[in-house]
Design brief:
By secondary structure, this protein is α/β, with parallel strands linked by helices. Helices cover 40% and strands 11% of the residues. The strands form 4 sheets. An 8-stranded parallel β-sheet has the order 4-13-12-11-10-7-6-5.
Length: 533
């Protein structure tokens, strides 16, 4: 019935064309409606056959209404701004940037900034009167610490974790094919490596979550042999152990047996006749010391590939416990991915999405300075994720301590996501987040893969221009002092004052600070996530 509703306008045009054809025999007045219906039928046939617009493939004829409304949106938006009725008047701008760059069209706009520059919290880059021109914008970073035998030279902008099952087969294939063409990495998400990841041939960051999909025993525990087999694939360049995620930190999930397809079962290594459980926490370790030893085991089983973990910062002392375990064991992850609570492209409980977990800027700053305080920052790379779409997002995040950026939302926009917020209903209107074969047919892989590559390339070019405008030669040279922020009282503050880099080794030396780092460090212990009594 849902398919009939989607194609209702097209089927209605066919039916009316047949009726009016019969009516032409009785009256010449029926000729005009017949011709109108014929035109609509031809439009519908074209919509079904074309490969550029997913909306039109899923909603022939009636889908054109969306583009009509988009055409008058600027006037509606201006009215809302002037009447102060728009809660988030510029929320669509970043999506527009992603669409334009993915399609390789002009992304410049007249009439100045779209930001509310008089509001508190506005930030900007301080540009140089001696700007530089950067020809090579294929910006890369080496990932791999002292114990890594197969370091990876990663792009500083990669596809963040989104599982097959949450995304459609066509979406995964388009993302991975685009990543291969563009030379950047694609995080598998915790759902395992699917046949569509392998078919695309792009570099993979294999994520191991609490369900251990792809390396799972029948009882749901970790299987070292299966992990070694999965990690041995030449496509797998890095392994990421997921401790928590920004959208719903500390929250597990169940995939009902009714929703498990043969392809999902294959990727996750689970039976089809049982509910698939993703616990809130890991069963392979329970203390910081055990976590470090597990990371060491994963590195050994993967024959020295970069191994790290991903988390959204919660109790800051608990992260200090992990850092103390690094110091005590001498085992360090090759990287840490900091996920901001504002990120997350999949469905999550509203309370978790809004009010659980630390936002990216604060979480990244804390992780960066904690590692500096323990003298480990040079050994551990830091990735960052959380609504990272524009070149400015990337530049500012690099300045605050990240080495590279992961984006889910930006690349979803590149393959046609319109934020219909139907991800959890299996009724995605553009075929991105659905397992419905008819709906995902709307997403044409060859077309969208090119857009993925375009989006990455054009965003890196924009980042290069921004870097050069600041008088720098590489985005990794951005520091907090290259940014200014307007406070709520309309005063200005330099980024280095708002987000200072703490001294190297200050925690090991026991130097007091005004931000509470040493206080938490003294309450943290490597043996347990519980505080010191």
């Amino acid at each position: 019935m849902k398919s009939v509703a989607r194609y209702g306008a097209f089927l209605g045009a066919i039916g009316l064309a047949l009726v009016s054809l019969v009516a032409v025999v009785w009256s010449d007045w029926a000729l005009l409606p017949f011709l109108i219906c014929v035109v609509l039928v031809m439009v519908g046939i074209y919509d079904l056959m074309q490969t550029r617009h997913s909306i039109l493939r899923n909603y022939p004829v009636v889908g054109h209404m969306r583009f009509l409304f988009e055409g008058i949106r600027p006037e509606i938006r201006q009215y809302l701004i002037e009447s102060d009725q728009d809660e988030e008047p510029f929320s669509r701008d970043l999506r527009s940037i992603a669409y334009q760059r993915a399609k390789g069209v002009e992304d410049k706009r007249p009439f100045g900034t779209r930001e509310r520059v008089y509001d508190g919290g506005y930030a900007w880059i301080t540009h140089s009167l001696a700007p530089r021109h950067i020809d090579d914008t294929d910006f890369r970073v080496n990932v791999g610490g002292p114990e890594c035998k197969q370091p990876y030279k990663a792009s500083i902008y990669n596809i963040s974790a989104m599982s097959f099952g949450a995304l459609s087969a066509n979406a995964i294939l388009a993302l991975n094919t685009g990543a291969k063409a563009g030379g950047f990495a694609h995080n598998t998400g915790e759902g395992g490596i699917s046949r569509y990841h392998r078919q695309g041939g792009g570099d993979l960051i294999y994520q191991v979550g609490t369900g251990y999909f792809g390396c799972r025993r029948p009882d749901g525990g970790f299987d070292p042999e299966r992990f070694a087999e999965t990690a041995s694939s030449p496509q797998v360049k890095m392994i990421e152990l997921k401790l928590s995620q920004g959208a719903k930190p500390g929250h597990g999930g169940i995939l009902p047996a009714s929703k498990i397809t043969p392809e999902i079962a294959e990727a996750r290594g689970v039976p089809m006749d049982e509910d698939c459980n993703s616990p809130a926490g890991h069963s392979a370790f329970s203390t910081p010391l055990e976590l470090m030893r597990f990371i060491g085991e994963l590195r050994s089983l993967s024959e020295g590939k970069p191994v790290g973990f991903k988390l959204c910062i919660g109790h800051r002392r608990e992260f200090m416990c992990i850092v103390k375990a690094m110091v005590e064991t001498g085992i360090t992850p090759d990287f840490i991915t900091v996920d901001g609570k504002e990120g997350g492209t999949g469905a999550a409980p509203l309370e978790f999405a809004n009010h659980v977990g630390m936002p990216l800027i604060e979480g990244l700053t804390f992780v960066h300075n904690s590692l500096r305080g323990a003298g480990l920052r040079s050994q551990v790379g830091i990735g960052a994720a959380g609504k990272m779409i524009s070149a400015f997002d990337i530049a500012r995040t690099l300045a605050l301590g990240a080495d590279w950026i992961n984006s889910a939302r930006g690349f979803m926009f590149a393959i046609g996501c319109i934020q219909g917020q139907a991800c959890h209903t299996n009724a995605c209107p553009v075929g991105v987040a659905t397992q419905d074969p008819l709906r995902q047919r709307a997403l044409v892989v060859d077309d969208k893969a090119v857009r993925v590559t375009n989006f990455h390339r054009n965003t890196m070019r924009a980042l290069g221009e921004m870097t050069g405008a600041a008088g720098l030669g590489h985005p990794s040279s951005f520091l907090p002092r290259h940014f200014m922020l307007r406070q709520s009282d309309k005063s200005m503050i330099e980024g280095s004052e708002a987000f200072p880099y703490m001294p190297e080794g200050f925690l090991l030396r026991g130097e007091p600070d005004q931000l509470g780092y040493l206080q938490r460090w003294n309450r943290a212990r490597a043996e347990s996530f519980s505080p010191v009594d």
